[in-house]
Specification:
Order of helices and strands: EEHEEEEEHEEE
Oligomer: single chain
CATH topology of the largest domain: Ubiquitin-like (UB roll)
Distance between the termini: 39 Å
Strand content: 25-35%
CATH class of the largest domain: Alpha Beta
Helix content: under 10%
Number of strands: 10
Radius of gyration: 20 Å
Shape: elongated
Length: 179
């Protein structure tokens, strides 16, 4: 029996997965070290579940680092004051804010990336409606039963409104996970 295993490692979305060979030390930490990837600020996923740097890998595993979501704003907390210095003062700014409290314009074109993990991310343009369900339709992704939907690292539902630059990642739910 060989102690050699192959795993795939990458930061998603954003980089291609690298194939790494491991002997003896089969931890996520060692795989990331060999790939030259730093885990700081990322959530680690292996076999569709959260993992740590000490998680032991098996042949064929994919180690995915997902960017952790930054603090989300509460409704009504949209703070762009249009004069470029976010001081709450619109002085010197003639523009109007058509975006409402959430920074979302229903007529805007939204550019997103979407994909299943493991797999590839594809860019899509959404016109009109910008919910996750619209992105899934645009990407021709059928049934999502058994998949967790994440946007910028946070679990969301099909009605979540997307903004330009969002990354929609579908992760296989781990067996035995509670919903």
């Amino acid at each position: 029996m060989s102690d050699f295993i192959k795993v795939r490692v990458g930061v998603l979305p954003g980089s291609a997965l690298q194939e790494i060979g491991l002997v003896n030390d089969r931890t996520v930490r060692k795989a990331l070290e060999l790939a030259g990837i730093v885990a700081d600020g990322h959530q680690i996923r292996v076999r569709g579940s959260d993992a740590t740097l000490e998680t032991i890998l098996e042949d064929g595993d994919t180690v995915a680092l997902l960017k952790k979501a930054k603090g989300a704003m509460a409704p009504g907390e949209y703070t762009d004051d249009h004069d470029g210095n976010d001081d709450g003062n619109d002085a010197g700014d003639d523009s109007s804010n058509d975006y409402g409290d959430y920074g979302h314009d229903a007529d805007a074109v939204v550019e997103i990336r979407i994909g299943k993990l493991p797999g590839t991310m594809e860019s899509h343009t959404l016109n009109g409606d910008h919910a996750v369900r619209d992105a899934l339709e645009a990407a021709n992704i059928g049934s999502i039963e058994g998949w967790e939907i994440r946007v910028q690292g946070q679990t969301v539902d099909l009605d979540y409104e997307l903004e330009s630059g969002d990354d929609v990642v579908l992760l296989k739910k781990s067996k035995g996970a509670l919903n």
